[in-house]
Specification:
about 5% strand; about 170 residues; mainly alpha; 4 strands; two-stranded antiparallel ribbon
Length: about 170
């Protein structure tokens, strides 16, 4: 199964993380600085930030001393809000079986488990704050992030956090 963010959501998350990183700065962030630091094409940044402003996640001030800031503390802004601001509703309205035999009032046999999986993904995004992303990003940059064992790729080497069923400090 392939689950990917579109370009707009990718750039929106990067811009929001940049604003969260600089939330304690007194000055507002300029679009050009966000673009440069987060490797976003400068032409996309004003469009993406305008959508985040419309969604009430970001504030903006025009002019020489203007720029962008998060509208709320990073701990109060979740990943789902950011993605929905640019992509709208994330739940698929297309049959997962691509129009296959749906016999239950427009539903197919896969409909119920597929909706449950979508709900789980949406709940996970809603439970992830920008503050958490900034913390993870800083740990990744510092080389100190420990991949939770349940998220590690099979055969991947590197430091892992012990799972709930495994005592801390035990290597397998």
């Amino acid at each position: 199964m392939r689950l990917q963010l579109g370009r707009r959501a990718d750039y929106a998350i990067r811009a929001a993380v940049d604003l969260a990183r600089h939330a304690s700065d007194e000055r507002r962030r300029k679009a050009r600085a966000i673009a440069g630091e987060m490797d976003i094409p400068i032409g996309y940044v004003p469009q993406i930030l305008a959508e985040l402003v419309r969604a009430g996640l970001v504030t903006s001030v025009a002019g020489r001393d203007g720029g962008y800031r998060l509208a709320r503390p990073a701990v109060e802004v979740d990943l789902l809000e950011v993605v929905r601001a640019v992509d709208g509703e994330l739940r698929s309205s297309v049959c997962v079986l691509r129009g296959g035999p749906c016999r239950w009032d427009g539903m197919c046999a896969v409909h119920v488990p597929w909706v449950r999986a979508q709900d789980a993904m949406l709940a996970s995004l809603a439970a992830t704050t920008l503050e958490e992303l900034v913390t993870i990003d800083a740990a990744l940059e510092a080389g100190t992030f420990v991949v939770p064992r349940d998220l590690a790729r099979p055969g991947a080497d590197g430091p892992h956090e012990a799972s709930a069923a495994e005592p801390a400090g035990v290597d397998s």
